[in-house]
Amino acid sequence: VSDLWSVYSKPVPANGRELWSLFLQCSCVTVVIGGLFYNWMFASLEYSWHLSVAMAVSFSLLLLLTLFLVHPARCVFSMIMPTLGTKQGRKLLLSTCIMIVVVNITPNIISNIKTILQVIKCICKNSSESLLNSTALLDTASWEFGDAIQETIHSINIYRPMNGHFQFSLLKNSSLIYQQMHLAGEKIGRDFLAVEVLVKDFVRVGNKLVAGFSVFYLCFESTWYLKNYLTNLRFDNFYMTKKLEHLAVDRKAAHLLVGSSKSLIRPTGLKLSREEMMLCLVQAMLLTVALMLMLVVVAMDHFAFSVADTAVRKAAQFSVVPVTLSIKYNVSAGILPFLLKLLQLPYEELPLQDFERSYHHYLTFSSAHCKISPPTPPNPSVLLVVGLLFCILYTTVFLETYAHRLCRKIAGSFFESWEEKRALYLYKKLSRKHKEE
């Protein structure tokens, strides 16, 4: 591995064997990166497969030529890998999480809301139909009661009205109500579909923009680091490297490193400075805010499913409500009752007609003929994938410092002569500081 890295980091191969070794290494790296690039464009960014293949092949060929021919480009590309563990890599992973949540959870929420609306529509339709049928019961009761009144009037044979029946204006055709309810349901469904499509398109375009910007910034950040590394001796130069230790031992000044052990950091050590630790905590807090927003969406998915499932089960358990209409009517006649009452004389009333009947009807609120789609439960695999991605994100927060150290080590292995100059600059800086103290 050491020999392969030595060939890969050399500015110019020494012989034909190293040249073929470099070409094979660049080819292997290009194939792997090209496959990942195709999968990222097709699965995550949702481009068409032929466009993804064309972009992946073009990118792979361009990457192969660049890595094989341009030495600084190999260094920049090598530093991009650990840079994925920094803030820009977190942006890529976070955009992937957002895409997974929007594509998989948002349609599930909308589907469960549609189920709730279907239950409400079914209840409204059946209850309105049942209420309309109850008006027919009133019609029957009114005609029978009117017949009884007519018989009473005929038995008195004194005054006959034209008709003793009650007249009801009944809505015999309920198709108008059903049509209005159907149109309302279709409008709500179209509105939900439009919102779903709008959210998907917005997130898809936003995710592509964020992903493109993040990839561009990854290259820019690595290039910016290499540029500063090669032009500024003070840039990121506070590590106790092996070259610095060898230089101090050769000049018999090892005490300089012992006295500066608190200000210098070993690039391979696990120690974090106070500034690095505070930066990690701030990044972790920002990531926690994003996690809370994701959990709110996941909680909405579970809540929508719970409401939809309860609505479907309760609608199926709705009992039939019995309605009873009771009419009690009696007619009696007396001879000059007012005069007898005035004289305080006893009198008796003669019963002429009694009418007492009960009419029964049942109100229904649900029916087996209603088309209600079953509620869609949350997908546990989506929550698992999002949870794993956030575990990786939290890990990258604390690995960001070590990723920066690895970038410096990569730059030093590609430009060893410049690394010696940086070590000499740091040694002179420590010597001046020791003399001043």
UniProtKB/TrEMBL annotation:
Its main location: membrane. It is found in: Membrane. Residues 235-427 form the Dendritic cell-specific transmembrane protein-like domain. GO terms for cellular component: membrane. Keywords: Membrane, Transmembrane, Transmembrane helix. InterPro entries: CSR-E3_Ligase_Protein, DC_STAMP-like. It is a multi-pass membrane protein. The chain crosses the membrane at residues 19-41, 47-71, 92-110, 278-300, 381-399. This is OCSTP protein. It comes from Podilymbus podiceps (Pied-billed grebe).
